[in-house]
Design a protein that fits this description.
Layout lengths: L3 E4 L4 E4 L3 H10 L4 E2 L6 H7 L6 E3 L10 E3 L3 E5 L4 H14 L6 H10 L5 H6 L2 H7 L7 H6 L3 E6 L3 E6 L5 E3 L2 E2 L6 E8 L9 H8 L11 H9 L2 H5 L11 H23 L1
Parallel strand pairs: 2-4, 3-4
Antiparallel strand pairs: 1-2, 5-6, 6-11, 7-8, 7-11, 9-10
The structure holds flavin-adenine dinucleotide.
The site of flavin-adenine dinucleotide has 28 residues, from strand 3, helix 2, helix 6 and strand 11.
Length: 267
């Protein structure tokens, strides 16, 4: 079937209406730029004067707009806006048992601070992941809960990968392969043992705490006294964004806050 196509000497704009068309476009134009909410790309074009010869809007691709509840969690199409994501997470929190939705509560708490309504109404979850910015607010949460990503390419088909320590390969780089696009992101239900924060990731995966340790003052002292948090989140002098001493102190403050919030829940 036909799809919208605008063409000039400078730029081609395509708006496919199915996933198959989108994947074929990506195969034909590997360097094409997918534009979803345009809140990142707009900045690159306006302030960094970047130019993309072929731009593709996936706005009409059903699979990228769907939200489904699966056995694993809630699966969000890559183009789902942050406002819609918030609505679905809130509904799940209101209707499902608390122990299954703790991760969602973490996302809801964070989304309050994510930009303003105008940005959240158009910015997508997929755009945030694929932008792979080190200052993304969502990516640390997605890593902490081990969210699952679905990529697709015309010939290779679909594949699923976890957002783990290997997923982000560097500044604005992910494990996406050259002809792939992002289809969906699944945020898993929490289980009894999973804690919903970045620090749970540190504690569980990076063994900041010694084995058999209890959630009490000794753990707090251990994590702080040995500078383990500072070692896990190194910030060299002159790191982008500045205020290095302040940000290092924040790491400890956030850990202390997380420690107290877990303590309240388990007491
Ligand atoms: P786009 O700009 O459309 O795309 C971003 C990147 O993702 C592009 O490289 C694009 O090609 C790629 N992409 C998009 N969809 C796909 C797909 N399906 N498959 C493969 N690649 C794809 N970010 C924060 O984390 N926290 C904030 O508080 C925050 N505040 C902001 C405030 C302002 C005023 C602005 C302008 C931006 C802010 N951002 C913030 C950054 C931005 O809003 C987010 O990163 C947003 O989620 C990007 O989504 P988007 O749909 O607009 O992405």
């Amino acid at each position: 079937t036909e799809y919208l196509r605008f063409e000039s000497d400078r730029c081609t704009w395509l708006r496919p209406t199915s996933l198959q068309q989108l994947l074929e476009i990506k195969e034909t134009y590997p360097d094409c730029k997918l534009v979803t909410g345009n809140t990142e790309i707009g900045i690159e074009v306006k302030f960094q004067k970047r130019h993309f010869k072929v731009m593709v809007s996936p706005a009409f691709v059903k699979e990228l707009r769907e939200v489904k509840t699966t056995d694993l969690g809630i699966q969000f199409g890559a183009s789902v806006t942050l406002t819609d994501m918030e609505k679905h997470l809130r509904l799940a929190v209101q209707t499902m048992p608390e122990e299954r939705t703790r991760v969602f509560i973490g996302f809801l708490e964070m989304l309050k601070w994510f930009a303003g309504h105008q940005i959240r109404n158009v910015a997508s979850l997929g755009g945030n992941v694929m932008n792979a910015s080190p200052i993304s607010d969502l990516n640390p949460l997605l890593m902490a809960c081990n969210a699952e990503i679905e990529f697709a390419a015309a010939k290779q088909g679909h594949r699923r990968v976890k957002i783990d320590t290997d997923f982000f390969r560097g500044y604005k780089k992910t494990r996406v392969r050259p002809l792939e696009i992002l289809v969906s992101i699944t945020i898993p239900f929490s289980s009894e043992v999973r804690k919903d924060a970045y620090f749970s990731y540190l504690l569980e995966e990076e063994s900041v705490c010694p084995e058999d340790s209890k959630w009490d003052n000794s753990l707090l002292e251990y994590a702080c006294s040995k500078d383990l948090l500072q070692a896990d989140l190194p910030l060299p002098v002159g790191a982008p964004g500045g205020m290095v001493a302040y940000r290092k102190t924040l790491t400890l403050s956030f850990f202390f806050r997380f420690y107290l919030s877990v303590l309240q829940r388990i007491e």
